[in-house]
Amino acid sequence: MDFADRRQVGKVPGNSQKSTLEMMAKASTCFFCGKLGRMGYDFFVDLQYDLARSAETVRKYSAAGRICQYHLWQLASMASPLDLAPTLAAIARETAERWQARGGNSEKHIKQRGLSSSPKGCCLVCTFIQRSETRLARDFQKILATQNGRAAYEQSLGFCVRHTALVASRMDTKIAAFILDHARKRFSELSQDLQAFSAKSASQRRGPLESVEKTIFSRALVQLAGNRHFTNPC
Ligand SMILES: [Zn+2]
Ligand SMILES: [Zn+2]
Question: For the chain, which residues make up each domain, given as ranges?
Fold first, then answer.
């Protein structure tokens, strides 16, 4: 699985705010996404391990709707088929029981027996990501309330669209204006970089992309759409 942001941000050591500020200033994409990606990745590594060894975890995740379709695919891309097979077997068994348990063939009954019987928003992975995101928003709110935090943020490429809005909405008017002004400059620069990339690509369409050009493209995607693995809470 390609957790590009994890590699870019690397380990955040302990609670050292100085290190966090330095890393935020140097991060090559949204630092918020990077930290969220690392938390999500660690969660998945632990989950993968537990599902392969703990019948209780398998039971927990095989109940209706406890892992959404997106995260089941994501898990499958990381886990070995042998490790994940017991979980899939339990989900299939639970699904079979659900189809059996509810009689009737009206539209309502059919819907109830399918995926819509899962209460929206109950995926355990989505819930973990939502909670982690809220916690990080609180952390960044504290960081950006400080002079040093804003100085580091000013040097950085800033957050993606989603996290710019999330953090700015938690700040007072003056600091929110600072964050939005920074975002305006950075997204304007990003647009110019992409236009230059596009013009060059058009003139050298047959040549391979240089690594710096690939970076512009992937950076733009993270800044505009967020971390591709961890910004889709249900
Ligand atoms: Zn982000
Ligand atoms: Zn999910």
Answer: 4-225
Summarised one tens digit per residue, pLDDT across range 162-204 is: 999 999 999 999 999 999 999 999 999 999 999 988 887 666 6
d(CA 79, CA 84): 6
Q: Which two tokens stand for residue 218?
A: 């992937």
Distance between Cα 137 and ligand 2 center (Å): 20
CA of 65 to the centre of ligand 2 (A): 9
Angle between helices 124-144 and 147-155 (to 10 degrees): 110
Residue 117 DSSP one-character state = G
Cα–ligand 1 centroid distance for 121 (angstroms): 21
Quote the pTM value: 0.80
Tokens at residue 44, please? 């998945």
